[in-house]
Amino acid sequence: MGLKRFAFVALALLAGCATPPPPEPGNAASKVLATGPIEEVAIGPMRMARENGFLTVSAQVSNTDTRNRTLYYRYLWMGPEGFPVAEADTWKSLTLYAGQTSFVPAIAPVPQAVDFRLEINTP
Question: Which residues belong to the signal peptide in this entry (predicted)?
Fold first, then answer.
């Protein structure tokens, strides 16, 4: 009986330590790269469109904290093979007030961009 109980507890601990599966390709979570801690900031829906041959993107960000937060972000532009097709954007900062929701828009610098990644960080 003791061996069965030990095996059950060991399996339960291993199941609790399992890493979550990676986000599905095309899912908004697969588009976000956290370069540091992301505290109290939620990433919402993302919109993509082509305008005059250039990829345009807008991502919703929300401050879920009761304090103001500064968010640093930049976009990376990818080609059809998944490799960068342009230099990464410069880091930009956005102040999100307590409970505020905002959008971070961008336009790809080259028409070859077909996908993007949003890098974010909160200090």
Answer: 1-20
Distance CA 50, CA 53 (A): 6
What tens digit of pLDDT does each residue of 37-86 get? 788 999 999 999 999 999 999 999 999 999 999 999 999 999 999 999 99
Do 112 and 79 form a contact (C-beta atoms < 8 A)? yes
Do 60 and 71 meet the contact criterion of CB atoms below 8 Å apart? no
- Mean pLDDT (whole number) for 79-99: 94
**Can you say whether residue 55 is alpha, beta or left, with left for phi > 0 and alpha for psi between -120 and 50 degrees?**
beta
Is residue 113 within 8 Å of 76, Cβ to Cβ?
A: no
CA angle centred on 60, ends 57 and 62, rounded to 5°: 155
Cα 28 from Cα 51, distance rounded (Å):
21
Between CA 77 and CA 71 the distance in angstroms is 20
Q: Locate the domains of the chain by residue range.
A: 24-121
